[in-house]
Design goal:
single chain
Length: about 170
């Protein structure tokens, strides 16, 4: 006779919610990937609107932001630390020498594959634990400053920049 495992309903609900958040992050990441695979690379050198960031900068920024989840979640160091200086702490056109679209697309894929592997193996209690930039004292006061909340915020961040990318002119 096999024993059937039954999960605590609260744990099952929490696990379901976490899976939904991870799936939303994956869906937004896949949409960005599809966008940057849709047009010739030259299109991504254009500003999304006059006086705004170029599409290539937005991709680099998204890679850098996602790469920053590794240290933020206590999963290790950034995979591409040089991208932080190029795309997160400085505005577009600060540096003439930046990676190509092809390099950034590969970086995006590498970061997302590695993050997805970590996310899929994390337990519910890890998601509800504090991230590395919040103190124990602050976390005790605001337990919503957890990793799951950060992933929801980063999913919205991706969505925001995707909206900007849809303004990109000369897409054919």
């Amino acid at each position: 006779m096999t024993e059937e495992l039954t999960l605590d309903p609260a744990v099952a609900q929490t696990t379901q919610i976490i899976k939904q958040v991870i799936n939303a992050w994956k869906a937004q990441s896949n949409t960005i990937t599809a966008f940057f695979n849709k047009y010739d690379d030259a299109v991504y050198l254009n500003e999304v609107a006059p006086g705004r960031n170029r599409a290539i900068y937005l991709l680099g920024h998204l890679v850098s932001a996602s790469d920053g989840l590794f240290p933020l979640f206590g999963l290790g160091e950034r995979i591409f630390p040089k991208l932080e200086r190029l795309f997160s702490t400085n505005p577009d056109l600060t540096f003439a020498d930046i990676p190509t679209i092809a390099e950034l697309k590969q970086n995006w894929e590498t970061v997302n594959i590695a993050l997805a592997a970590h996310f899929d193996s994390m337990q519910p209690e890890e998601w509800l634990d504090k991230h590395t930039r919040v103190s124990d004292e602050d976390f005790a006061l605001e337990p919503t400053r957890n990793k799951l909340n950060v992933l929801m915020s980063r999913t919205n961040h991706i969505s925001n920049h995707l909206g900007q990318l849809f303004l990109l002119p000369n897409r054919k």
